[in-house]
Structure formats: C-alpha cells, structure tokens
Amino acid sequence: MELLDKLAVLTDAAKYDAACTSSGVRRGFQPGKIGNTTSSIAGCCHSFSADGRCITLLKVLLTNCCVYDCKYCVNRRSNDTRRASFTPKELADLTIGFYRRNYIEGLFLSSGVLRNPDYTTEQMICCLRILRQKYGFNGYIHAKAIPGTSPELVQQLGLLADRLSVNIELPSEQGLQTLAPDKNKRAIFAPMRQIRDQTRQSTEELTKYKHTPSFAPAGQSTQLIVGATADSDWHILHLTESLYDRYQLKRVFYSAYVPVVENTLLPSLDTKPPLLREHRLYQADWLLRFYGFRANELLDERHPDFNPLLDPKCHWALNHPEFFPVEIMRADYETLLRVPGIGPISARRIISARRVSHLRHEDLKKLGVVLKRAQYFVTCCGKMRSGLQFSDTTLVQQLEAVERGQLPSGEMQQLSLFDTVG
Amino acid sequence: MQDVIFQYDGTFDGFLCCVFESYVYKEFPIAFYSDEECFSLYEVRSVITCSKHAQRVYRSLVKISRRAAGLIRRAFLTCMDDKELHLYAFIRKLYAEGPAFMKCQADEVYLPICRAVRHLNGELEKLRGFIRFSIYDGVLGAEIEPKNRVLPLLRSHFCNRYANEAFFIYDRTHKELLLYHNGRSRIVSVDHLRLSLPGEEELLYRRLWKCFYETIAIKERYNPRCQNTFLPNRYRGTMTEFLPTDYEVQQSLVTSPPASLAIAPTPFAQAEIPVPEIHE
What we know:
The complex is a heterodimer of chains A (422) and B (280).
Chain A (H helix, E strand, L loop, with lengths): L2 H12 L32 E2 L5 E2 L1 E5 L26 H13 L5 E5 L6 H18 L5 E5 L6 H10 L2 E3 L7 H7 L5 H24 L11 E7 L6 H15 L3 E6 L18 H16 L4 H4 L13 H8 L6 E2 L5 H5 L6 H10 L7 H6 L4 H4 L3 E2 L12 H13 L18
Parallel strand pairs in A: 3-4, 4-5, 5-6, 6-7, 7-8, 9-10
Antiparallel strand pairs in A: 1-2
Helix pairs in contact in A: 2-3, 3-4, 4-6, 7-8
Chain B lengths: L1 E6 L4 H13 L2 E7 L9 E4 L4 H14 L1 H10 L7 H15 L12 H21 L3 E3 L2 E6 L6 H11 L4 E6 L4 E6 L2 E6 L10 H17 L7 H7 L16 H9 L25
Parallel strand pairs in B: 1-2, 1-3, 5-6
Antiparallel strand pairs in B: 4-5, 6-7, 7-8
C-alpha cells in the first residue's frame, strides 16, 4: 500500500478522537534537536478542518487492526474496513516532514490493539524512540496509553511523550459492559492513576535534580462519548468533576457520538450527532475549571440535563435570583465571575479599572463584557442600565433571544397561532 | 500651540523624534506623513531622524512605565488608522498624568491602542500556526500576507523553532523579508520575490498534507461557519491545504513566462546572510 493510502486510512480511523491540543508544556530549542514546543503555554493551532475543529497534531493510528470488538468503534474486529499499519520509520519521517513545513505542532499517536495491549504499546514506543532519539525531535507528542498495558511500558511511554491519555469513552460501567465487553473500568483507571502518580513524582524530582527525565510533563487527558448510551448530563458532569479532582486531569474531552455502525444497542445510523449537547457540556466544563462552579450547582437529580436553549451559566443565574444584581464597583472577583457575560479576563479588567474611575454600563462593553447578557444581572454605582425593561417571566425569553442567533438554524420552530404565549 | 503636519521617515525612531520636536517647538501634530508627497494648507514640518533624540524620548517613556513603552513599540507595528495620532495622544496623556489611566481599558485614549495591539496579537498567534513552509534545496521558505507588520514579532518564535535550519519568510503586504541562517537573522526590504518551482519531494508532502487535511474532517459535523471564525478567508491564500499542489506553476502561467522563474531560491551564503539576489 502506498504511503498516501495508508495516511488516508489511518487518519480516517483516528479522526473521532477529540483531543488535539499542544498545550501545557514549554520547551525551548535544544542544540542539535529539531523544533520546540510553542512559546505560549496555550498551544498553537495549525489549521481548522471543514468541521471547525482545530488541527494541531498529526493525528493518526499506528495501525487500525484491532483485536477488540467495541460496538461503537469503526475499527472493531468485526467491521469490514480497509486495514493498514505504518512502520515506525515511515511515521517518524512523515512527522518530521510535516513539522519542518510548519503543518503541525507534533504527533498524536494512537493505535488499534494489535495482538495485545503490551505488544501494541511496544510498537508505539519503538516509533517514538526513533523520533525522539534518532531524529532528535523536540516537538510535542501526545500518546495514547492503552488500558491493560503493563505499568513498565506505560512508564517508558510517558518518558517519551508530553501528554498521555487514556480514553474512558463510555461514561458508565454498564455502558462499558454492553458496548465494549473487552474493556473494564479497573483496566482504564489503573494507568490513569499511574500517570497521575508518576507525573507528580517527576515534577517533585525535577525541583531537586535538574536533569531528571520528565514524565508526561503536560499531564493527561481523557475522552467521553456523548450520546451513545443513555447517561445523563448530570452523570457525565459528575464524572468529569471527579476526574479533575481525583486524577488531576488537564482536560476531559467530549465527543458527540457519530453513528458509524449499525447495532441494536446503539442509536440508529440516521441520528445526527448531538452537537449542541456536546457544546453545553464543554461550556459546563469551562465553568468547572475556570469559574469556580461545582457540578452540583449546575445540575441536580431533578434537572439531569442542560437546557439546550440557554447556556449553563445563564441557566444557573435564572435559578438563583437571590444572588443578583451584582454591584460592579464592589463585588469581588469570584462574584463577578458568576455573572453571565463576564469571564475571567473581563472580571480582571473590571477590578483593575474600577480603582481609577467610576464604571458606567457603556464602559463595561469596552472592557469586553457581553452586555446583552450581563445587563440584566449587574448594577453600576447602584443603577441598573437605563431603559432596560424585564421581569422574572420575560427574562428567560430575552436571554434565549440573545442565544438564538448562535444556535444552528435547524433548532428554529414554525410559530403557530395556537401556541401558548409567555 | 501651533498646528502642523509632521513628515518623517516612517520608522519608530522617526516617530519618537516627531514627539521630541513637537515638545521642543511647542507644535501640535494635526497629521503624520511618512511618504514623499504631502500637500496641505497646514505648515509641514519635516523631521530628520536622530537616534539621540529618539532614545531620549524612549528612555523617558520607560521611566514613566515600562509596560507603556513596550505597548507603544508594539502598537507602532499595527495597521491602525492614524496610528501616529493615537500614539501621540497616548504619549501626551502619559506625560501629563502618569501611567494610572492605563488601569482602565475603557479610557478613550488607551482603548484604541489596546484594540489595535489585540488585533496584532491575534494575527501573530494565528500566523504562528498558519505559516506554511516549502523546502527548496534544504532551505525553508514561506510567504505571508498579514495586515500588521508581524515579521519582527514572529522572528523569535521561528528562529527558536527552526534553529538548525536556514529559512526565510516573505511579507507580501509590507515587502519585507526575514532571513535566518546559522543563528543569525535579519529583516530586509525586498520589492519582489520570485521563488523557484517546488521539487518532487515537496510536491509529495503537499499531497500528503492535503490528504490528511481532507480526511481528518468528520462529514457529519461539517460546520463552515465555525471554520471561518477560526480560520478567516484572508489567511487561506498562502496555506498549502487551500491551494492546488502546484500553485506556483498555475500562477506563473498567468503572470509571467515560466522560463524566467528558474531563479534559484534564496542563496544563503555560508556564514553571513547576504541580501538575496532575488532583489529586483
């Protein structure tokens, strides 16, 4: 098979993985080596594909042959699809060629399970060794740790890669049993625990000994599939929160399930991927990581799913009228962050600006506040925005109207004379 | 104070000299011109750049606020309309009131500068990823069409990333060329750059990249609006994945006969970086 065909097959097989980031590690140029990881901690996007997702890394599988038979996966054993494998050298050459042309920031290496997890991981390590040691590649490498791999191999992998990830995929044990019978919860969490402990240990050692090899310096991430099983948003968000708390994950990615295979246990082939739901989960994820929210505040047993018409923060604000209005000139940072339309950057700008001048509503706009959301929830020097009219009952509709322009147009509904108004 | 028009050489030092003279002769700028012709009913003051005066002004700015001085330097690279007037107003306010007003971004003098610098930073961040190099006989070459003068700011990033390589980046908008070889870099202005045709290996890698780019998108998630937000159309003219593999050939058929295209790519000499012979 030609290289071009191989690349097409193995990219096609890897594309459902959502993680494509090069963030979390800053490593400058080293003499005799190729490249660096970006000068900014936030990573660097090299392109955006037709679905609007960022392309940072060369995201491919080493092979798409797999001994597992997970029902949701395109690469499962029983699926009739073209199979291919890169030789370690081919992939290393391709990475260097792309990197030198500034197409990519590094390599994202995943693989189907060939023979067994240990053998597959050995193949991946072999490829990364060529890249790191023979070619002196100093760019970013994200590698997948396959559940069930022995700890010694995970350690070797971590010493070569910047970030490791173990995909949970199905958010509940029960989903795992029905859809991925070859995997189990313990096998998934064991490498996560190991990666957490070794990253922590490696950072501690680095403070004492300068030249200790660093283990996965950019931490670890994982991915959850949304919409393949019946799990609620509440369940997924709780899982996310505990992953951040207990395993110190850098990111949890959500992947809206794209029906690729026909199976009675899965949504039918003509269901659309739940993109809006995925979007709401990402918004909630940001609220957990940067806004100081807890999962319990956003959803509860009685409301297990997000309102598709409103973002989670507005939704929270509507359910907590006692918290508002917030006085811009006096509120502390944490309180400002809870106002819809104010984010970490604009909150910091407000705090800095109010030391030197009285802020009016027009000024807030200049500071980057999204006033069309925030106006209902803030006062400036004790005053609401002049001319603003709303009541508790109309507020929901007004906020939904703000959101509507950003929703996919398919969500629109034909108005009917007989709909209940208000 | 008298209203005048300042005419200077368009450099940052030249601009600082305008500031210097405006204070010395108590003249207020009504406009700045950096090109030759300037016809107006206002009096025109031609300012000759003098690095001593420029340094004096810059040092005084650093003394007031290091951050402000850096911001002015950066804002001078932006494509803001009337950037000199905005910067002059900013400097005046800085001298009069000190740096406290910079705490409030809603300030009417500070805001336009902040916006312009944010625009510059955004473009910089995007270009770090979107620049596409082609390899001509071992030398990396790229072309860009930015709105702001990003080349001086891209310099450190790419010199760090490709420290062991020789590379050049040509800015079509501002007709500047960044050259790097053997740990030394320099920016020269070049009116026109013509590149030689890509080799077989280069074409192969372009095909591979286009194949990867097209395959990685998930059909069911097709979302051109989202793609446009992150990757605006204006960047696509220099990006491999949006161009035909052999775009140089196609372009040359339109603009000039292919025979004249056989000019060797940037002949980097061994130690010193010469001004390339592509100079026209």
